[in-house]
Specification:
Length: 59
């Protein structure tokens, strides 16, 4: 089914963005100090990615 392939691709893309975001936020924290808004944004991105993973597995 073509729709499930697209869902899988977008879920993988979100996973890559989430991991990349974690690396960038961690590097920023090490270099310049912690920023709560960056960590909050990363947590929100992670929750959205987790929701996409759960949704794609249930269909």
């Amino acid at each position: 089914m073509p729709g499930s392939t697209n869902g899988s691709t977008s879920t993988k893309t979100m996973g890559v963005l989430t991991v990349g975001g974690l690396v960038m936020v961690t590097a920023y924290t090490v270099a310049l100090g912690s920023n709560g808004w960056l960590w909050f944004g990363w947590v929100v991105l992670g929750l959205i990615t987790l929701g996409m993973v759960v949704t794609s597995r249930s269909t």
